[in-house]
# Entry
Amino acid sequence: MSGGGRWRSLWPVAVLLALLAVPRLDLQIPVIFDGPLNSPGTLQLLAVGFALGIAALSYNLLFGFTGVLSFGHALFFGTGVYLPTIAMRQWEWALGPAIAFALLGSLVLASAVGVLAFRTHGVYFAMVTLAFAQAGAVIVGKNVGELTGGEEGLSLPFRRLPKWMVGVVNTDNLYWLTLATLIAVYLVALRLVTSPTGRVWLGIRENERRVEMLGLRPFPFKLLAFVLSGLLATVAGIVYLFLVGGATPRAVSAEFTVTLLLMVIIGGSGSLWGPVAGALLYHYLNVRLTVWAGSDVVADLPALLRQPLRDPLFIFGIIFVLLVLFFPRGLAGAFVGRRLRPFGRSLGGAVPATPIGRSEELDR
Amino acid sequence: MRRDSGEETPVSLPSNPASPAPDTRPPAPIIETRGLSLRFGGATIVDDVSFGVPEGMFVSIIGPNGAGKTSLFNLISGLYRPSTGQVLLQGRDVTALPPFARVRQGLGRSFQLTTIFPGIPTLENARLAAQAGASGNFAFWRSAAANRAAGERAAWALETVGLRGRERVLAGSLAHGDKRKLELALLICTEPSVLLLDEPTAGVSAEEVPVMLDVIRRIRKVEGKTILMVEHKMDVVHDLSDRVAVLANGALVAYDEPDAVMADPFVRSAYLGVA
# Structure
């Protein structure tokens, strides 16, 4: 290893320590954050980013590491958001059983959807998963059985939560909880992608026919990836729920799955931490651009500039185009560069990403 | 289609290990087709092909473009289901088995268009193949790198095909000839008893062809594999083969030793274009 190798491996540790310390840092970072670093607003912004990071990471197990494009991932995130809320509010369950219920429900749901959807391939698979997700969104939106609260959503009954999780003053606790969950999920995902099963997933991503002709039936491997990534998305949904304090239909919308896909692409589908970074960046821009678009600076511009810049999505669209243009392999790809990292040895199990248009096609 | 293939005891075949009685008949073929046909609509792609290959033999399959050579391979490896007929592997009817199950029974297959894992390093390609051929593929809580047996087998396979020193290169960045070699390495990692090679020298540069043939010879001699190969280069076919099978319009028109096949007047006119 070259001299840079040592620093490279220290990077994640340094970032981690810094993130852990944030709730105790009374620092002002002008322009980037409104309040000091340890203000509830900033902590909430970061923590929601972590929760979305978990979701993006789970989605990437399927998309980036198995090569399966699903449009139904919001269903499993939504399971983590809705099932505990329903169990606690409508059935008055305690927190522990409510969480277990969500995980079990996700396991069953993901298995069922996976078994049916993996009868198809490629775009058709994506469409079948989309159909299931839309069915979920309709069930939630129509308030079937008076359980979900319909378009209004459902707030979390705070008296059923331990005290340290409730209230603005405890945002730092939720921040640490979410960060700890992110680290745990990251380590689980790292084990998965460097396991024998993870290697078969990569094989399926690269060339499903060859996997078959090595004597393995792809279906159970794809199903396993689908179920495990669904479970981790549910974990993301649960911590997200604690942060935002309730369930809203957006959590099960197809739009949310597309958002996850964007986060993964921004961050880089070839690495584990890329999508987490992508999610943080996306969430940050989503929140901050809204603030910026409503600021006086924009209001004073001539109409021609003011009108598009008023819309945060317009700015976001430009940023997204620039990112894809200059970092086609995402933020992770930009950092890893062209160097081939030792396979599976680095933190993040960095698998050299093959972007859209697999090199296999070049042969044919 | 009969449903009994998995459990079936070999039908009246002398090599059945359950009946080791002295037998004067020739050894049972390790791979055999019986009345194998493939029809799409009105077109007959493979027409009633019956032949057997004894263990350890090298058989080349030749024939003009569209003769049904690759289709025959697809039938044997299970990518196509035959319209009629059977495929037997080591005396067992595998006609109803999907491709991966046939591989598990000892069939390895390379493709005319290189079929490897382009986005991962060469060594990891072979490692995955070695791991796939063994058990423990669902152990998602374990470390893949801890499987030393797979690592050693992968290193051995790369050495055998002459890809040593290329371990860390992404398979997709290998030169074309090296990709073809890697595909052979993937095959031998799964320890097949029969190899189906679909034009292993296709697209390989003239200097590289002898290297490729050496690799195939080594796999054959050292590993004692049975090999079926689709090939166009007649000198290659003549040198390597114990027998040559000639396909024309989907039908097997000759199946004999190379010299005899080359001398066959029908083959000479139909395939070699010699009057």
Summary: Residues 26-103+231-275 of chain B form a domain with the Rossmann fold fold (CATH 3.40.50.300). The longest helix of chain B spans residues 208-223. Strands of chain B lie at 31-40, 43-53, 58-62, 84-89, 92-93, 107-109, 194-198, 226-230, 243-248, 251-256.
